[in-house]
Amino acid sequence: MDKFRMMFQFLQSNQESFMNGICGIMALASAQMYSAFEFSCPCIPEYNYAYGIGLLIIPPIWFFMLGFVLNNNVSMLAEEWRRPTGKRSKDPTILRYMFCSITQRSLIAPAVWVTVTLMDGKSFLCAFSINLDIERFGNSSLIKGMSEMEKMKLLAKIPCKDLFEHLEIRVAASRYIKCISQACGWMVLLMMTFTAFMIRAIRPCFSQAAFLKTKYWSHYIDIERKMFDETCKEHAKSFAKVCIHQYFENVSGEMRSFHRHRSADDSDDEEDRRSDEDKLLGIRAQDDMNKVLWNWHTCKPPLALRKDQSNGEDNNGLKKEVNGGPNGFVKGHTHDMEKKEWAVYYSKV
């Protein structure tokens, strides 16, 4: 169990690298799935186009949605977008940064699928075989006397080896459409590479301070959410332990009265109990905990920490009155400290 816990903590601490690895695995999986996929064009005019274009579009949409599902930051983004403003304002730039980061990772696997599909050319051939001009690829006597519907049925059979009898026409038409498909694949690949290059090149032209600010607070939201979940788990564990201990103490109270002196185990149990009670942070009732959780959701604390100052000599004298905002900062986020004069004497002896 400890090994799984350590592995889970490692994955949490290296979430960004882990998500990049997941995206890479999904990209390889998409290419492998396409190579293992048995392409079967229906060779029917009414279904060829739908099957070919569907194979080109539907799997990338599935991979794109799967990328969102496997990314833990989606729930964090949704919570940050839907939460009430309360005492903490919401920055739209942070939400855009998080959404763009999730989208970029989710687009890797669909881009690989579309590129591999276009390079292979089978779906393109199935979708657009009925639009070919068969007179350009061989003997035009095949279509003489045929109606328009019969021509479409004949052209729809080009992707199927067993149904189209004329091998030369089929090979020529297949090479022509696959050539166009591969050209489209290279264009898509070139456009994606050029877009990524432009994003990398243009980013330094904008304010790096704004980018660092957005990146910092997006990381803060992620870490705050994780630490809040961990704190809730620790509190729930301590709450359950203290509740169970008190239950057994109430049940066996009469039996404990016979024990005159306490053993070392009892002292250890007492120390553990005190540590668990300290972890409760003063919240010892169900209604109080529900109120804390509700307040955290509806009115998160502002991101301006208060610095408490104290002095052992005079506890009442150095507790300054807070005249500023809700976070304890006064007069430009500084506390007015009483200035003291010092006299220094030098002796020539």
Automatic annotation (TrEMBL):
<feature type="region of interest" description="Disordered">
    <location>
        <begin position="305"/>
        <end position="333"/>
    </location>
</feature>
<keyword id="KW-1133">Transmembrane helix</keyword>
<comment type="similarity">
    <text>Belongs to the CALHM family.</text>
</comment>
<keyword id="KW-0812">Transmembrane</keyword>
<feature type="region of interest" description="Disordered">
    <location>
        <begin position="259"/>
        <end position="280"/>
    </location>
</feature>
<dbReference type="GO" id="GO:1904669">
    <property type="term" value="P:ATP export"/>
</dbReference>
<protein>
    <submittedName>
        <fullName>Calcium homeostasis modulator 1</fullName>
    </submittedName>
</protein>
<feature type="transmembrane region" description="Helical">
    <location>
        <begin position="49"/>
        <end position="70"/>
    </location>
</feature>
<keyword id="KW-0472">Membrane</keyword>
<keyword id="KW-0407">Ion channel</keyword>
<keyword id="KW-0406">Ion transport</keyword>
<feature type="transmembrane region" description="Helical">
    <location>
        <begin position="21"/>
        <end position="37"/>
    </location>
</feature>
<dbReference type="GO" id="GO:0005886">
    <property type="term" value="C:plasma membrane"/>
</dbReference>
<dbReference type="Pfam" id="PF14798">
    <property type="entry name" value="Ca_hom_mod"/>
</dbReference>
<dbReference type="GO" id="GO:0005261">
    <property type="term" value="F:monoatomic cation channel activity"/>
</dbReference>
<feature type="transmembrane region" description="Helical">
    <location>
        <begin position="183"/>
        <end position="202"/>
    </location>
</feature>
<keyword id="KW-0813">Transport</keyword>
<feature type="compositionally biased region" description="Basic and acidic residues">
    <location>
        <begin position="305"/>
        <end position="322"/>
    </location>
</feature>
<dbReference type="InterPro" id="IPR029569">
    <property type="entry name" value="CALHM"/>
</dbReference>
